[in-house]
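Mods, move this if it's the wrong board.
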Amino acid sequence: MKAIINYLNKFKEFNNIFDDKRVIHCENDESFAFLLLYEYITNPCPLVIVLENLLACQNMYAILSDMLKDKVFTYSVDEINKYTSLATSPEMELQRIYILNKLIENEPIIVLTHTMAIKRLAPLKSLFKKKTINLKIDDEIKINDLINKLIEIGYKNVFKVTQAGEFSYRGGVVDVFPLNYNNPVRFEFFDTIIDSIRFFDTTSQRTINTTNEAKIIPATEFLFTNLDEGIDNLKNYAKDLINSSKNNLKLEGIINEDIEQISNYNFNEAIFKYYSFFNCYSTLNDYLDNKQVIIVNEDKIIANEQFIEEEYATQSLKDYEEGYCLKCLHIYESFKSFKNGLKNINKVSTDVTNTTNDYSFIKVLPFDFNFDLLYKDLMDFILSHYTIYIGLESTIHYETLKDYFLQKDVNFYEADDDSLLKEGINISKKDLNIGLDFTKEKLLVIGENEIFKKRFKSTISMFSRYKNAITIESVNDLTIGDYLVHEHYGIGIYKGIETILNNGIHRDYIKIEYRNSDELYLPLEQFKLVRKYVSKEGAVPKINKLGSKEWEKTKAKISERVNDIAEKLVNLYTLRSQNEGFSFQKDDELQEAFENDFPYELTLDQKTVLKEIKND
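Not the wrong board. Structure tokens:
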């Protein structure tokens, strides 16, 4: 990327791209993505990109993530209103909290967000920092006080820590899995004094390394200063609405259950709609300070905001009349208020109808292993005095293309990141992951995706409470009658896809039936929130009841068996590690092509296992 930047630096269009307040016009998403890469690499600092909707975030993430790895994140929410009949994503909340902490620490990351996410309430930045727990060796704190602090900021007490957002304790030891670390932390106490702090592996329980201090950020957005005051505010607001409701008994029962959840520190998305009553809220705006914010297609964001507010007003009134929830709750701030106070705002338009684009880079069409077509096109560009950059990170692909050029007597230069690109063909082991034709600058950039069908990541990396589970890769994997498992609602029966008309918008939902014919509608784009139930052939699982606690009891029983299962697995893998294996040859071109033709994106665990197998 540095070699490309050095080449483009001589063109004035690439000097201080986002330094003025003009609207920047880009012809396509790829052009804008390149500008983001260019800006981030030349000036690594926090960048917050506001897009129209979640889909736009996902598309931009797919382009940027391969290049920036763990430097790009999505601050997002489900693009549906959170009502009693609709499922939500707990992973998104953990991701948002993680990003808020990154912004507080002023880490140089790119944050992709969208209309509904910037309108959503968030805890005050000052409160987030106050509730963050910082512990050092020799600090004095009672174990019970630490446990109460962890519960208050959203950590769940479990038998054994396995996932982010959990803690456990026994005797003078407290294990915590903070959201801001890749591994859990073990605090060992001598009475009320912290004697040691160490990171450990969740499977083997062995120490990874020791440290003198650790930071535990909140695991919930539902942070408060006075719990009782907030509950009183909620009760006072609800009193008249309950009395005026046609379904007052039903509504009163639901509100009382929700208040009980809050009192017991059981914070989830269904509870968050009451957060404004605790008077501790802000929005993402509060965490941005002097950070650079880029608003993309502002007219579409404003139109989307209007749709969101109208949809919420209509659905809120309907749910109130049916006795499901209170109406007119304060769950969003305005886009206007989000912009207030921001000092470094830039605006970008990717309107394809605009004829005066500042940056019109043409997306390169894929060659899909067709080297002859690649050769023909490259010769045409060379005749036009182009500088051509071909980035191939795979050693096999790099050597394959070199051999092809040598056979064709094609002149080329081997370049690294510090090289000055020369007119003609430059091949490098650094892939930009975006194939673009910079027509004005006479620069052509091609990568593995264009030549060898390398695929971008199609999914957003997020926190997951199912790190060791197998997810459904496609709704096509489901057959009507399959048993599905949902984290909060348990086991139900898949009943197909239904299209529901809501405020003139058709949306597809997965229909899941529970006991007593209760129904849950899960938005189709969130199908990965459910898992397919797997059992012995012919075995029929017990269907759960919506609203009951039996699923929570089932999960508690399973949690109690984790130690036994873990011990058996450790013994099994110990025996396997003692056996000698067969050493295969290193991957050749055919193996690479075969793997690239696999039609699905590998999970992180699958990639890790594949790498370990090859290393063995």
